[in-house]
Amino acid sequence: MLRPAFIYKLLEDHGVEFMPGVPDSLLKNFGSYAFDQGNELIAANEGGALAIASGYHLASGKIPLVYLQNSGFGNMVNPLTSLADEEVYAIPMLLMIGWRGQPGVKDEPQHIKQGRTQEAQLRALGIPYTILSSEEGEAANQISKAFDVMRENSSPYALLVPSGTFGNYELQAVSTEKKYPLKREEVLELLVQKFGEKDVIVSTTGKTSRELFELRAKYGQPHHQDFLTVGSMGHASQIALGIALEKKKRRVFCIDGDGSVIMHMGGLAIIGEQKPENFKHIVINNGAHESVGGQPTAGFSIDFGKIAEACGYRKAFCAENKESLNAIVGDFMEQEGPVLLEIRTQLGARSDLGRPTIAPVDNKSDFMKFLREDD
């Protein structure tokens, strides 16, 4: 395995001083080390990270590193081809891509096709790449070659990082000074007991959907009300919007996360402009990309409620503990939408948290039958 400190120092020796990106579970040890060195910028999404890196290169002339999970590779295809490409502005940068869904490696269904086609996508885009070795001597040679190619061609170069490439490193930096007493699963448990039998739930990717699935089982409730968005980070609210516009007699709840909302925050403007009266937006804000390493988001530095209201939401609520949540959740649920409820929580999930036992396509089928019940 590669020591994160070794690769970080190697990149430093090649002149890398700036590392914007979006956290990934396969890169979390390296990303945590880089964050602790103060040399990492967590972007809203992968395309934004590439644009930030481009601006940095234009201002400094230096080669940055952009890190990401390959599930977000699609977010950067446009700026890759229309900004950094050698036939446009010719901006060199090193892409460190966590290779989820690598052929032959067991992974979750939402990663399989992206992983299987990742090399073909890079070849189609004309981006030279290598599969990063877990042996330090070989990795050093690969990275040295990457910088030779980037400097010669003035274009991006990709490192595909398989699972288990980096050795362990625990994040040392404290992401937030203020601690909130509620846990995300506590919040979901309260909500599950308040949703009606006809309410529609769209939950965001990561541990939120996993906890919701297990809570339904705990209370003997069916899963057909819930669309578990196991991938497509940042798009849960727009899925929920499409449902709300079609099913106007149903209350539609989107259970979102801070990182997810920030990733595609423009969606709030579309919700506000459409003004679906049945749309209820819940943002569980723990200030971090918890599922992929715990690196902080901008969630505790911004006011989601004010942003939502500025985008056209009719009202916004915020809760920071169980008492305030219990005091406002009823009003929130009855308020004419679109309406937003931000709930600030701490990091953490059960160590024995499982994954949904229903395949995504079966979840979709059951969910669609549930939506047709009022037709």
Structure, described:
It is a single chain. The strands form 4 sheets. This protein has a 6-stranded parallel β-sheet with strand order 8-7-9-10-14-13, sandwiched between helices. The mean pLDDT is 94. A hairpin with a 5-residue loop joins strand 11 and strand 12 (295-296). The protein is elongated. With 375 residues, it is α/β, with parallel strands linked by helices. It folds into 2 domains: 4-161, 3-Layer(aba) Sandwich (Rossmann fold), CATH 3.40.50.970; 184-374, Thiamin diphosphate (ThDP)-binding fold, Pyr/PP domains (Rossmann fold), CATH 3.40.50.970. It has 14 helices and 14 strands. It has helices at residues 4-13, 28-36, 46-60, 74-84, 109-124, 136-153, 184-192, 207-218, 236-246, 258-263, 266-274, 304-310, 322-334, 360-371; strands at 20-21, 41-42, 65-69, 94-98, 129-131, 157-161, 200-203, 226-228, 252-257, 279-285, 288-289, 295-296, 315-319, 339-344. 42% of the residues lie in helices and 15% in strands. The longest helix has 18 residues, at 136-153.
Can you describe this structure in just a few lines?
With 375 residues, the chain is of the alpha/beta class. Helices cover 42% and strands 15% of the residues.
